[in-house]
Amino acid sequence: MPSPAVCRSPRATATAATVLLVVCGAAIVFRLVTDFLLYGAAGDLPVDVEFGDESAFSSSYGLYLAASLMYLLTLAGSAAAFLTWFYRARVNAEVLYPHGHRRARGWAIGGWFTPVVQFWFPRQIAVDIWQAGARPDASGVRPPLSETLLNFWWVSFWLAKVTNRIGTQSTDGAHYPDDYQQGLVWLIASDVLEVVAAVLAVLVVRKVTAMQEERFAERAATAFGVHVSAVGS
Q1: Alpha carbons 152 and 197: distance in angstroms, whole number
Q2: For the chain, which end, N or C, has fewer CB atoms within 10 Å of the first or last residue's CB respectively?
Q3: How far apart, in whole angstroms, are the C-alpha atoms of residue 29 and residue 35?
């Protein structure tokens, strides 16, 4: 049996996730710049020259490798911070709405790494966290919140992964400069989508954190108000 859900402020983990997502986004922009440099370097080569690797691009490719390493390091940090926040938000959401969750808490982390279910479990959990932050009306009914922001974030996240896979396979299999440039177009699209996904992830973190803090503040204020009234009478 899981331990009882205990509410803790998500502010610290939200701040860490936000900062590291911004840093990761900056690293992606740097890699995007190197993508364009590689594209230009490939365009300077004769179209009928066959090459076996990217060594023909010398300094441009070295800069791309440095940008990719920076991206991987910042990605690892931002992913760890985001998952820490995500799990805390999931536990808090269980306090706010105990019966509004389709997956157990453990899936808030495990769902991202489990094959097949990683395509929809994390989104389901994110939606349940999101809806748990809705303010109940006088009758206790929670009006559903718009999920547009979540949907854009989730779609951009996976589109970035798909286009990156296509671009990587295309550049790895390229034998001529124009083939390599076509693969780079996919990588450029992937980096743009990753920047979009990072920005939307920051917005999701900030929105969910704000909603949870508002709901818990309202609960505390209500409890305090009842106590004060009793003492005053």
Answers
A1: 8
A2: N
A3: 10
Burial status of residue 164 (CB atoms within 10 A of its CB: 0-12, 13-18, 19 or more) = middle
What would the two tokens of residue 117 be?
A: 């279910």
Number of neighbours of residue 231 by Cβ within 10 angstroms: 7
For residue 229, what pLDDT is reported?
Answer: 36
Q: Which pLDDT does position 109 carry in this prediction?
A: 97
The pTM assigned to this predicted structure is 0.89
pLDDT at 126: 97
Q: Which two tokens stand for residue 18?
A: 């936000």
Distances (CA, A) of 105 to 108, 150, 201, 215: 6, 19, 20, 20
Terminal C-alpha separation, the chain: 43
Single out the residue of 46, 70, 43, 42 nearest to residue 58, CA to CA.
Answer: 42
CA distances from 67 to 59, 88, 166, 184 (A): 12, 31, 19, 15
Calculate mean pLDDT across residues 77-97: 96
Distance CA 108, CA 113 (A): 10
Distances (CA, A) of 167 to 34, 185, 188: 14, 7, 8
What the block records as the tokens of 82 is 């985001």
| Angle, vertex CA 17, rays to CA 15 and CA 23, nearest 5 | 105
> Residues of the chain with pLDDT > 70: what percent?
89
Amino acid at 207: K
Q: What is the pLDDT of residues 92-105, one digit of tens each?
A: 999 999 888 999 99
* Nearest residue to 102 via CA among 94, 110, 112: 94
